[in-house]
## 1
Amino acid sequence: MEGTIPLTYFIAVSAILFTMGALGVLIRRNALIVFMSIELMLNAANLAFVAFARAYDVLSGQIFVFFVMTVAAAEVAVGLALIVAIFRSKHSIDVDQMSSLKG
Amino acid sequence: MNSMLILFIVLAAAAVLSALGLLLSRSAIYAALFLVLNFACVAIFYLILGAPFIALTQITVYAGAIMVLFLFVIMLLGAEKLPGTKAIPWQCPLAIGLSAVLLVEAGFLFFQRLQSSVNLSQPDIQVNSMESIRTLAVMLFNEYLLPFEITSILLLVAMVGAIVLTKQEKGAAG
Amino acid sequence: MENSGLFFLVPWIVFLPVAGLLVNIIFGGRLSEKTIGTIASSASGLAFLVSVLLGISLQANGGEAFIWHLADWIHIGNLNIPWNFRVDTLSVTMMLVVSGVGTLIHIYAIGYMHEDVRFKDDPKRYRRFFVFMNLFIAMMMILVSGDSYLMLFVGWEGVGLCSFLLIGFWYDMDTLGRPSWANSNAARKAFIANRIGDLGFLLAAFTMFWAFGSLNFGTVFLKAEELAAAQPAVIVAITLFMLIGVTGKSAQIPLFVWLPDAMAGPTPVSALIHAATMVTAGVYLVARSWALFSLVPDAQYIVALVGAVTALFAATIAVGQYDIKKVLAYSTISQLGFMVAAVGMGAYVAGMFHLVTHAFFKALLFLSAGSVILGMERGHHHLPQHAPADEHHNEVFDPGDMRNMGGLRKQMPVTFWLYITGTLALAGIFPFAGFWSKDEILLDAAKNFTLIYILLTIAAFLTAFYMGRQVWMVFFGKARHAAAEHAQESPKIITVPLMVLAGLSILGGLLNLPYVHTLSKWLEHTIELMESDFVLPGYLSISWGGLNPVVALVSTLLALLAIGLSWLLYGRKSLQVGEIDPLRKLLGPVFKVFENKYWVDELYAALFINRYVDLARFVAEKVDWNFWHDWLHDSVIARFFRWFTHFLADPIDLGIIDAISTALASLVNRSSAALRKLQNGFVRSYALSVLMGVVLILGYLLFK
């Protein structure tokens, strides 16, 4: 198949995905969906890394993505455990109800 | 207009739309499934960009492990439907506004600063073969050995943390 | 000036009396009266010794003036006035008179003040007297030894101060010892009258500086000639201003009024300051300024006229006085008139000669009068012992009133003969000193100034008359008061210096006998008028004249006639107790005028003094008290201030400043309440602020 895709297209997609992830963090009240939006953001960043790695023919971009994924997995594990623990005490995963730090 | 570009546009649309679906869906299950779709699209992106290992890892780890975890928790906690009224009324418009600004800034950054002359050439056969994986492995275990080892410890910590956090005291209410 | 001889001693004429007064001030509290008096007299005596040595050195130097530089005093721009001592024949003459007569008076005062402080009941004041006397000698020495008009003025002012201090020695009493303001008023009168004269002197000095750029004698006299040719009016102004100073210091018309009141001081003071030395400073000034005066004959004539009129005026007043010292005071004014007239006529030597002889016999007369007064006091204090039932010793007793005296020649013989000597000298009887000096003045007057000659001759006639009157009233006849009957002679310490003065009064004429002219030759070195070329006609060879038998005969006859007249009125039939003065019967209202001294004091009071008091009172009450204090301070300033503080306190302090601090506090309160709302506890809003920060930073980095 012929044709090339300009780098900027990939980066644009990454930016859009990132923004939507940020929006999701801010708008949604379900803690799980907030978490998922965070994963979305991480993903968008990974995409940008790989795109740049391909563009400048540097492999360390992919290495970095590898590590990001690993850390994301660890983070999800712990985060979900946290959500479960919170649910046990508050019986709700609505982030708006976790406002005890209210000053 | 070549086929690669068409593929790309289709995949991009799919990714964006699934992300949108994640944002707007009422139920958590639907949101999770939309996210899986998004991960799959991104995985194919990786393949286009000539990173087969990363693509497969994406599917294995993200879509396979992480999302399954999510689904387990959703099942545990119940995909409850949350009440519609929000505690902070001004959050929504302001967040949308700021995100739009962010997008504009990102667009400005990329289209003004970035050398748009860089074109990603079509990946050749060699890229998607074992050769690239070998190169990756060599780099990973030679230059990036230390981060690799530390990451393994990180995983251990995560495991321990997850267990600790969800451990119930004897006699505590469930 | 090559041979400096003993001239280096010259500053000691000032420093020795200063040392004497310092010793007395510092140690006098522990010393006996005799020691204090001895120290003071020695200081004055040593100053006399130095003057003698200076005189000898001067003579050895051929009479050339010698200027000894002590210190730089004023040096501003073009004005250079150092403290120089001028040793020339004129200043040495004055130095000898001041310190010589001064020393004799100091010795006299040891005895006189010893009794006086006991009569006035304040022995502790003894030391102060001698301190002031030494200060006076020092100041007078500065006056006569100065080389510039400013140095002269320093001494001029200084002797004015000492006069004030010594006249007001008994400042809390009057002359009879009663508590009163009288003595201090007299001292103040002297000071003020002198001050008016000083103003004249200062104006002269200013004009001199403006015209010549210097106040040093040498410079001024040198430049005066050229200026006289160009602008004679300036020299006239200078000399007439100086004349005002002379009338103040030497008690001429119109500023003589202080001298009679100055008799309130102790008698040695009257003798030293108001007869022999301070009052002669004016004559000295004119003599010193001969170079200026000789350029302006018109001003000179005014000076001479003032002197002659004063001489006659004062002599008439002396005829009607009853206080023994007042007669001598007016006599002094009259004799000063003679001196001023002499130097006014250009007869500088005659004036100086009379100055010297007058110092001798007037001091003698004053001190003898002091002896008489002491004798009367002693008599008065012994009254209770001799006449216990006498009604006199409770009344107020004036020991100087001649109407209380009489027949004292029996009680006080030594004083009597001393007084006679002085009287004859003053009256100008041959061969006493007064004859020679007064005769020389009359001679010079007769040559060129007829009016002045007539005035002075009448004054001389009256002089002999009132002195005769005084002698007959005091020493002859019967005592009119019990105190006079019991009067006692004075001790040796009082009479011995008087004998020295009496000797000088007899022999003083030898100083400048006609055809010998010792003093003229001596003074010629300084006053070069006699033989210089630029002398104006009429003033030539005034003091080289011989004896004019006509003038001499006329003056002597008149004097004898006057004494005879006084005997007729007062001697033949002695005055009884309470009897009216025979002259009053003779002259009637004229005598009243003399007795009341032409009401000059009353005239001055009405014209000047009371007007000044009115002005002072007006300024004090209306301007200072009513306007300044009541209105300006109380109404305007204090009320404004009070309003201002209220204004500051209420609206500004409370309203603005407090409001600011309160507003600040409430601002913090409200802002913290507002900001607290940020901490709403919602994670989502925190995340939003993070995003906002990211957007802002990204924007900044992009558009930098």
## 2
Amino acid sequence: MKTFKLFTLLALFIAFTSCSNDDDGVTVLEIESRTVSNLHAPQTGGIDQMGNPLPISGEFTKFDFSTGMTTTSATEWDIAFRATSIIVNGGVSLETTDEPIRTGNAAAYFATGTMASINAVVLSSLEQDSVNGYVMAQWYTYAGPPTHLISPTPGKILVIRTRDGKYAKVEILSYYKDAPDNPDAFVDEERFYTFNFVYQPNEGEITFQ
Amino acid sequence: MRILFFIIISFFTITYSYSQEDQTVIKDTILTQKLDEVIVTATRTVRQLSSLPLPALIIGKKEIQNINSTRLNNLLNEQTGLITVSEFVGGEGIQMQGLDSQYTLILIDGVPLVGRSAGTLDISRVSVGNIKQIEIVKGASSSLYGSEALGGVINIITENPKNNGLKGEFNSRFGTFNTFDNSINLNYKKEKFAVSTFINRNSSDGYQFTNAADLNTVDPYSNYTLTAKLHYDISKNTKVSASGRYYIQDQIYAPTEDEAGKIKINEWNTHLKVNHKYSDKWQSYFEFYTTRYIADEYLNSVIDNSPFSKSDYNELLMRPEIRAAFNPSKKTSFIGGIGIDHETLDRTDFTTKPKINSPYIYLQYDGYMNDKLNVILGARFDNHSEYNSQFSPKTAIRYKLSDKVALKGSVGYGFKAPDFRQLYFDFTNNFVGYTILGYNAVETAIPELVEQGQILNIVVPISEFDGALKPENSVGYNFGGTYKPFSNLSMELNLFRNDIQDLIDTQLIANKINGQGVFSYYNVNQAYTQGLEFNTTLKIDNHFKISGGYQLLFAKDKEAERAFENGEVFARLSPSSPSFQLSKSDYFGLFNRSRHMANIKLFYTYDKWHLNTNIRGTYRSKYGLLDTNGNSYLDTYDDFVDAYTIWNWAINKTFKKNYEFGVGVDNIFDFTDAPESATDVLFVGNIPGRILYAKLNIQF
């Protein structure tokens, strides 16, 4: 079933992109719309078995909208993931262990709506990571005991300015491996992001249409 | 199950139409002089229930005996609009007019039970073996009772010996899950002197659901209740009484497979009362009440017996009160009182040992303007050092349109003082790592955490905690009427609304370096509960009685409602589908509230065989326990606990006048909604399935 779904998405994606490739005399780049599955964002530390706080460490998994893929580049990334933390490549570091240095001018904000209804960027809402925290900290709802599930809050669309001044919107769908329909925090492997994104590759263009 | 319910309803309707035809016959042949029940809780004076301008209800001893009830929780569950809700391990609180159990005051003989360690007062600890009647008054009643009487008051009135001589009663019930309940009542009265004692032991093996792993859903427990009451008439006009109650419970505590421990509860109270009549018009009461509630629990590792956790809770309430009643005429009465509550609490995870003194004063007028119009006006003032002082007025009116129809309405203010936990808690969860701070604890605890280097960033500045936490408060409205078309049929309708403000909730105030949060309490929410309640009783003859009740309820958070209205709430059907916007009608309301609740009861007595039997059904429509789709609201796309109906049946036979033997089945159709897995939370935890029992009652 899951494989089938992924396959469908992939097929749609191929169909979509191949259509766009049919255009010739390209002056305006096509808006890209994709699904990223199982982006792994591991972390070490947190709390131990007895609940004592341990320092958090581990490399962030960096993502580049222009390629639509993860990257290990120190500079060519837009957002990065480590467990539930999402950072942008812009602003200041909270200086947690292994947190990368911000080299770009990325920024972000949360828009309320559906992926389809958020069509333009509100430039004044854009913020960067600061000493007050990560701008994209509250993307999820934690259910607490006994399920302890972490669910992406429906209706929260991440609007992002990339490191080089282009725009993207993101809807996070799942925090568990293979995006199961009924995730179980004790069974399903966590820290695997599945998200949809739309990327506007044309410089200065603030709409997604 | 639902179908069965409707069959009964239709049966009821048919019987009703029959009885209308037979009306004249019944009236002529049987003199049904029903003794009117009196209630003391509503006005703190003796009042006829039928003429009261407030929505109220009495459960009599006879009903308690006929349905073979032993604990307060199962008894209240069968009443219209009342439901017990499990809120923590082994604890069941009462929900009234859609308000949580923190907002209902529970009294025994007019004085409060304490021990709300987690907000809920566990009413299963109250034995009903020595009860004369239970009085339930719905609607805000802080004008007489102060804090906690926001949704209503439940007052348990214990029995007093009526006749001279020694009288005793032995009662024993044994049922499924090895549940034993044995009690002895001994009463002695000689002219001016009376003494009554009551001893009860209640124990059970508890029960567990298969999928809840090795853990018991209710762990084994045993408890004792001892009460003694002395009464002496010093003179015709001066009466003295002293009573004491002692309760002790042991319960196994095993929240996970690796842990084993015990919860031990010790509770006692003493109540001294002097009543003096100066004249026909004046009398006064002096009361001194003291109660202490101690709960100790510990949890050790199963493997090496090393301690996991240990917590103590020790609460004391002392209340002297002077009350005076003035009756200038038969149609007018005044009652007023002045007193002080002295409370202390010694508890694990507290920053201080709080000591609180709150003096109070109240006055109430109750009068008949003419034969038809009865007015009650009352108010109370509570002074407090830790939160804003409260002024609680109330007014109630009843107007008799005819012998058959009366209208009534009341508006009252109710409040619930912030509890000690909300003020002084300083608790860090050792397993997960989050911290909860009481409002007053924030100013000292946050700098400490900062110093220890545990804080990543502060979300709400400490200066926000300079003021005082406000009591949660509400204005309650009740309007309705009674209709008695015939002497044997009565109907009552009540529309209610509780407008609640300053509800206390937790908020994130800082983030810790371990990725967890620091939370504290604040006044934020506004909510309301509204709906209607309908009750009817039909006495077909002196042997056959049918009653039915229904409650419609809407319980909503006002901010949540606004969020839905503004289109800020979204949902998605599955993780792979995109989210969509929800509309106002998609908001279901507060957790754990059913839109519809109903009950029907049939009581039948067959004198020739000295037999009585009854069948009672209760229905509860679907309700949500938590948000299951990540938008933090309960909406129609969330998973719900399904509606259910429970049927209970009992039959009792009396032998040789003093022996009564009874058998019965609670939950005849064995309804259960067990968890499907260890993480399934949408199950009904306090209904273990069918319960068979037998009981024996001996009077001597």
